[in-house]
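User: Show me a protein chain along with its predicted structure.
Assistant: Here is one chain, sequence first, then structure tokens.
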Amino acid sequence: MKKDNENIISDSNLMICNTKLGEVVPNIAQMLRRNADKFGNKIVFREKRDEKYIELNWNQLYTDICNIASNLKKFGFNKGDKMVIFSRNRFEMLELELALMAADGVAVPIFFNYSSETAEQLIQHSDAKFLTVGNTEQLDKIIRELPLKHIFIFNELSSAELTSRRLKHKNLHPFSELLNENKNSASSLNFNTHPDDICLNMYTSGTMGNEKCVQLSHKNILSQQAAIQVTLNLDANDRFLSYLRWHHSFGGIFEIFGALYNGASMTLESSLGTDPAEILKNWKEIKPTVFFSVPLIYQAIIDLIGGDKKAEEEFFHPGLKFVFTAAAPLPKRISDEFEMRKIPVVEGYGLTETSPCCTLTDPEIKREPGVVGFPIPGVTIKLAEDGEILVKGPNIMKCYYKNDLANKDIFTDDGWFCTGDIGEITDSGLRLITRKDRIFKLLNAEKVIPTRIESSILKKCPYISYALVEGKGRNYPVALLFPNHRLLDKTNNVNGDFPECNCPEGISELSGCLSHCLKELNYNMNQKFSWIKAAMLVDDELSIENKTLTPSLKLAPNNVKEFYKSHIEKLYGEDVKVVGNVYILPLDE
């Protein structure tokens, strides 16, 4: 990582990156033309289908993008029109998004596994005139009559099935129609698009569960990549292995454009992050030089290969330049595995509204819990009087789409973006403390910071994947704990793995182990009012589908509290009993 702390100016309330941002490519169309001219036949994207890799080079990518843009205009697509893309990651989705952006349109990706109700709500809210679905599974979720001019589908349908499907969706077309060759198709791209024009609308529920549509411009996306170019040592020789979902900013902006901007090659991980064993299989084939992931996947991989020397050698291979983590703190035991092998761990902080990166850690500075580093070039950070992190820079969104209430409070009068996060500025960088709206008061008016307690629980017990602490307006805090099934099911689990734990062999044994852990944590807390007086081990899997997890696999506290409202109430009852898959932890003082 090319970083010099002398380039950071900071005091207790302000951090400025003094490194010049450099020249920013003005729009997506110019970036694509530049790289097609520069890299030509170099592979830009790989995807495995039927156990074989499909490869796409820069010339092919650029030609397809030009044809898509040209054919969209024949279907009545105009400047500023929006298209919702309701699909899993695939190369057609990449081509379509880039074509929309380069032709003065707005891409609106949404999670491929959303329910019919959620998908239809977002499509309607987006004001999109066009929709593309990945396959018939997504198409079947479009039940209501929506004001759409045309619907496209990536998967090929037989002529009979297409005819049948058109009985319901008269305006349905195979995506292949957009790939038809056209003369002078490059003229459909706008190389003069203004940098401030909107090109991407991303829906974010955030951790607090309120769906908002973030409007991002060409400048937001490309200024970020210009900044990353002078901070991370990325180049055209890099190999990305990608599973992060593209409807979320970490994968859909930071990772994708990190590869595209620098001419690197990206391979789509075939399980899309759902199977650690498959990730390792892909890893062995591709030998990525960089990897971008949320902590949960690093944990799953490290736990899977633990003790297997050959698997460890293949994973921690000599060509691995760095690993990148974001969205949640990376447990120390996981980062230690990389650092002991001299593989840098880089952590970033930001939100979809900041395109998404604001800060990066410096691998040469010893990692500290909660510290997320220094501002990237072009970005300035300051703290409000209450400790809220405020940000300025070319990466900050224009505003939320059709949300006057949220827009009213998201910027200060002098133009600072309000992140909603509480932090502090230290010599090691910006330290995150908690979400502003997660702090709650007990009945006795004492303030509790639940994220600190949750982090302590997760750090103490690797057999817990997620923890939620609640207690607003109550006499004491309680906790809901969700087990790490992958680790519990591991057949070679031995006492030496985690010396601080009793290494439970199942969920019932884990409840006893946790009772002991929580009591220890309570006694180590200075403020007795923060002690967890009751806790529940819930043998459930949280998921993006039921909105208890965000797209980046972070806990969505408000949704979890609503989903498990009855469980929380039980913890405040006088007669608490074990029910079904719930294990009550005895925490008598």
